[in-house]
Specification:
123 residues, 4 helices, rod-shaped, 0% strand
C-alpha cells in the first residue's frame, strides 16, 4: 500500500470516528460540521485507491474502515429517526396551540365570539 493510500484511509477513518462520536452524543451540529471534510476524505480515498489491486491495501485498515462506515450508517439512520420524532412533536404542539377558526354569520372567518350568532340571539 502506498503512502497516499495509507494517509487517505487514516484520514477517512479519523473523520468517521469523530462523526460517529458526535452522532452517538446526538451532537448533530458537530456531525454536520464534519460533513465537508468527510466528503473530501472520501474523494481522496477513492482517488488514492483507484486502480490499486485489492492485495495492495492493508486488509486490517480496510476492515477498520468498513466497520467505521457501517457504524456511521447506523448512527445516521438513528439521527434521522430522532430528527423525525422532534419534527412530529413540534408539529403536534403547533396544531394543538392553534385555536380552531371562528366563522361569522356569513360563513366567512370572523372575529369575536366563538359562540354561534344564532345562539346569542336566542338568549
Amino acid at each position: 500500500m502506498s503512502g497516499s493510500e495509507e494517509a487517505a484511509i487514516e484520514r477517512l477513518a479519523w473523520l468517521l470516528q469523530e462523526e460517529n462520536a458526535a452522532l452517538e452524543a446526538l451532537d448533530f451540529t458537530r456531525g454536520l460540521q464534519l460533513l465537508p471534510a468527510k466528503r473530501e476524505a472520501a474523494e481522496a480515498f477513492s482517488a488514492a485507491t483507484r486502480g490499486a489491486s485489492p492485495g495492495d491495501a492493508d486488509a486490517d485498515a480496510l476492515r477498520r474502515l468498513r466497520f467505521l462506515a457501517d457504524e456511521n450508517r447506523a448512527l445516521l439512520v438513528r439521527a434521522l429517526r430522532v430528527q423525525q420524532r422532534v419534527i412530529e412533536m413540534v408539529a403536534r404542539a403547533a396544531r394543538a396551540a392553534t385555536p380552531p377558526p371562528v366563522y361569522g354569520a356569513s360563513g366567512l372567518p370572523g372575529a369575536g365570539s366563538a359562540t354561534p350568532r344564532s345562539l346569542l340571539q336566542r338568549v
